[in-house]
Amino acid sequence: MKKYFSILFLIFALILTGCSTGTDNAQGSQGSETKLDYPTKPIELIVPYAAGGGTHLAAELLSPDAQEYLGQPLSIVCKPGAGGAIGANYAAMAKPDGYTLLYHTFSLPATVAMGDVDFAAEDLIGIAQCSTVAPVLAVKADAPYSNAQELVDWVKANPGKLTWSFPGIGSSLHICGANAFNAMGIQDLVVEVPYDGTAEGIAAVLGGHIDVVSCFTTSLAEQLKAGEMKLIGVQAPERVAEYPDEMTFVEQGFDAVTTSWRGVFAPKGTPQEILDYLNVNLEKLIMSDSYLERATTLGEGRVYKNMDDFTQQYLSDVEMVEPLLKKIGLLE
C-alpha cells in the first residue's frame, strides 16, 4: 500500500511540475513579447501641395483602407507652398512618434538639393513608395498647337509670349516641365508662372490666363474626357496605358523623359518598431486589390518599394537630381 501511494505521489508531483513549467513558459513568452501601443489615434498624413492636385488625390487613395490595415484612420492634411518645402519642413520637424507622416514626390530630393528646406536628406525616412507617374504638358483644347513641334514653332515665332504653370518653384512638375522645354530648345523663350497647386494652374489654362500647365494626368482626367484640354506630350519612355493614343516627347523627337514617384515618409527618430509596423502594413494596403482598383481609376500607376529600398531611392535621387537642376538652371 505504501508503495502504491508513493507512486501516486510521484505522478502527482510530476504533473504539478509540468504545469508549473508550462505556466512559467507562457508567462515568459508573454513577457518577452511587448505589445506595440500604436496607433491609438488617427495618423496625420501631410501633403505639401494644394487640395485637388494630383499629389493630394494620390494620397487620398490610402485613406479608405487605412482603418483596416493601419488600425486607425489617415487624416490627409494639405500644407502647400514653396514647391512643397513648407509641408516637408512641417513633417520633418514633427514629433517622431508615428502620428505625423509625409506624402511627397520626386520634388523632395530637388528641394533638399537646392537647400530650400530646413533639414538634411537623412532627416526623413522613406517608408513606402506608392506609385510612379509620368508628367505631361497640357493646353486648352483650342490652343493653336497640338504637338511638341507645333508648340516649338509657335514659341519661336512669338518669343516671350507663352506662359506655363507648375505648383511651386522646385516642385517635381517644375523640374519636369523645365526639362521638357529645355529638350525642345525653347526654355529661354517661355515665361514661368508658379501656382500653389496644379488645380489652380489647370483653372488658369481653362480661363485663358496661362497657356500651358505641367501636371500629371491624374489631375486632368475630367478635362481630357470632356475635351476641354489636350496633351502636347507625355514625359515617359513609352506611351502610358491610361492614354495609349497620346504620344511621348521621345516619339516626337525630343529627349524629355522624367517620371516622378510618390510615397510616404516619417521623420528621423521615429521608433524602429513603429517604422516596422508602418512598413509591413502599408505594403499590405498598397498591394491590396482595392487600392489597385482606385489607383487604376485615377490613372495612378502603382509601383511599390519597401522602407529600405524606398529610402535608398530617395537618397540616391538627392545626388542624381543635381545635374538635372543645373541643366535647367535651377541650381548653380
Outline of the structure:
The chain is α/β, with parallel strands linked by helices and 332 residues long. The protein is built from 12 helices and 11 strands.
Structure report:
With 332 residues, the protein is α/β, with parallel strands linked by helices. It folds into 2 domains: 43-132 and 260-327, 3-Layer(aba) Sandwich (D-Maltodextrin-Binding Protein, domain 2), CATH 3.40.190; 135-234, 3-Layer(aba) Sandwich (D-Maltodextrin-Binding Protein, domain 2). It has 12 helices and 11 strands. The chain has helices at residues 2-32, 54-60, 66-70, 85-92, 107-113, 148-157, 172-183, 198-206, 221-225, 272-286, 289-298, 307-327, and strands at 43-47, 74-78, 100-105, 124-133, 135-140, 162-166, 190-194, 212-216, 229-234, 260-267, 302-305. The chain has a 6-stranded mixed sheet with strand order 2-1-3-10-4-11, with helices on both faces. The protein has a 5-stranded mixed sheet with strand order 7-6-8-5-9, with helices on both faces. The longest helix is centred in the N-terminal third of the chain and has 31 residues, at 2-32. The chain is globular.
Write the layout of secondary structure elements.
Blueprint: H1 2-32, E1 43-47, H2 54-60, H3 66-70, E2 74-78, H4 85-92, E3 100-105, H5 107-113, E4 124-133, E5 135-140, H6 148-157, E6 162-166, H7 172-183, E7 190-194, H8 198-206, E8 212-216, H9 221-225, E9 229-234, E10 260-267, H10 272-286, H11 289-298, E11 302-305, H12 307-327
Parallel strand pairs: 1-2, 1-3, 6-7, 6-8
Antiparallel strand pairs: 3-10, 4-10, 4-11, 5-8, 5-9
Helix pairs in contact: 5-12
